[in-house]
Design goal:
Elements lengths: L23 H78 L5 H10 L10 E4 L1 H12 L5 H5 L2 E4 L8 E5 L2 E5 L1 H16 L5
Helix pairs in contact: 1-5
């Protein structure tokens, strides 16, 4: 045991006393372990923060990807609709040009009217109206159908310049029939639009 003298002469007052013991080295080792453990805690905290940041970034990227996909799908739908309308516009021009040239033959429609029309009080009440430029062609082709000669003789053909090429209007006392290839095309166009939209309209 260290003996401390009862009186020590000093020129200045004593402010602190440091006691050294054999456990000093052990204290230094303990402090080192504490520092190491604290550094491990700091490292875990940093890793947790990094993982949280990465998770936040991943979630943001996922949301952005979903929004981008929705935007791309919307643009694709809009582009698809534009392509459909462009195709229909081109087809409409082609059909109109074909009608103007007389490439659409209304004979089949006229034959259908003659064979299947419902007469009123008289079998001679059928009136068929055609564009003047279609009249001669239709009558010439019907004349080559022997089974229709009797019915054709009872049918009145009228050249109507107010009708478009390829258009047919037939009427009896029992009812009327109207066939316009342009209207038929528009019905097909509506069906194409509906199919392009997935049947939503």
């Amino acid at each position: 045991m260290t003996t401390i003298p009862s009186a020590i002469a000093t020129e200045a007052p004593i402010r602190a006393v440091r006691v050294l013991s054999r456990s000093a080295l052990a204290d230094e080792s303990t402090r080192g372990k504490v520092k190491w453990l604290m550094s491990l805690g700091d490292l875990k905290a940093r890793r947790d923060a990094e993982q949280k940041s990465l998770l936040t970034i991943a979630q943001a990227v996922s949301r952005a990807a979903q929004q981008t996909q929705a935007t791309v799908q919307q643009r694709a739908d809009e582009l698809s609709a534009l392509v459909v309308e462009l195709g229909l516009a081109v087809a409409r021009e082609i059909v109109g040009a074909a009608l103007d040239r007389g490439d659409v033959d209304p004979t089949e429609t006229v034959v259908h009217c003659i064979r299947d029309c419902v007469h009123g009080s008289s079998e001679s009440d059928l009136v068929v109206r055609l564009h003047p430029d279609d009249m001669a062609i239709v009558q010439q082709r019907i004349a080559a159908m022997p089974d229709l000669h009797e019915s054709v003789a009872l049918t009145k053909f009228v050249a109507d310049p107010s009708l478009g090429r390829g258009e047919v209007r037939a009427a009896t006392e029992a009812g009327k029939l109207r066939y316009d290839p342009r209207e038929a095309f528009e019905r097909v166009a509506a069906a194409v639009r509906n199919a392009a939209q997935g049947g939503r309209s």
